[in-house]
Amino acid sequence: MNNFIVSIAEQDSEHYQLLTRIVLRLNNGEAAHQELMAVLFKIRSLLADVQVRMGRGEYDNRVQFAGMEHELQFGTVYAKIILREEWQKLKREVADPEQLIKDIRATSLPDAAAVEELARKIAPSVPRHFLLYQRGPLRLASLSLPRQRQTAPPRSFDVPNTPY
């Protein structure tokens, strides 16, 4: 199994980095963004299942690939929704640039207490995957977070509501 993991480590790292970049660009406060994140984490989970199964010499991964195809269809729909929403926002901003400039000037930088409150509000919504699961060169679990038991979440296609 170790030989297999080593052989795909670079590709796995690239996938993980792309996932992180996409998630960082999404707005966790909007429904379509949340759904797209859920789809991406499910696909990542299915890819991890395939890796584990192939490492054990189990090459019949039709269920996992069918699950990925299913999730990709949903992801495409959510991505189109997000792009349409962003396009509408951009058109509104371009239609009235003076108002956009007024809105930007009217905002002020948040003080430290407001930033801390926002971080505490958002922190529980950070996917467990990013807090606990160590994989590849990105060691997100090494960030200064409260100490928690360092275990990998279950990897099974049959587990409902898997956080990644």
Shape: elongated
Largest beta-sheet characterization: none
Count the beta strands: 0
Distance between the termini: 22 Å
Radius of gyration from CA coordinates: 19 Å
Q: State the helicity in percent bands.
A: 55-70%
Please indicate the percent range of residues in DSSP E strands (runs of 2 or more): under 5%
Enumerate how many helices there are, as a single number: 7
| Topology order in helix (H) and strand (E) letters | HHHHHHH
* Average pLDDT taken over every residue: 76
Pick out the low-confidence regions: 129-164
Structural class, judged by helices and strands?
mainly alpha
Number of domains: 1
Please, could you describe this protein's structure?
The protein is mainly alpha-helical and 164 residues long. The chain has one domain. It contains seven helices and no strands. The longest helix is centred in the middle third of the chain and has 34 residues, at 62-95. It is elongated and about 60 Å long.
Short descriptors:
disordered C terminus, 164 residues, 0% strand, single chain, 7 helices, mainly alpha
In short:
This protein is mostly helical and 164 residues long.
List the helices and strands and how they pair.
Elements: H1 2-7, H2 9-25, H3 31-55, H4 62-95, H5 97-106, H6 112-122, H7 128-132
Helix pairs in contact: 2-3, 3-4
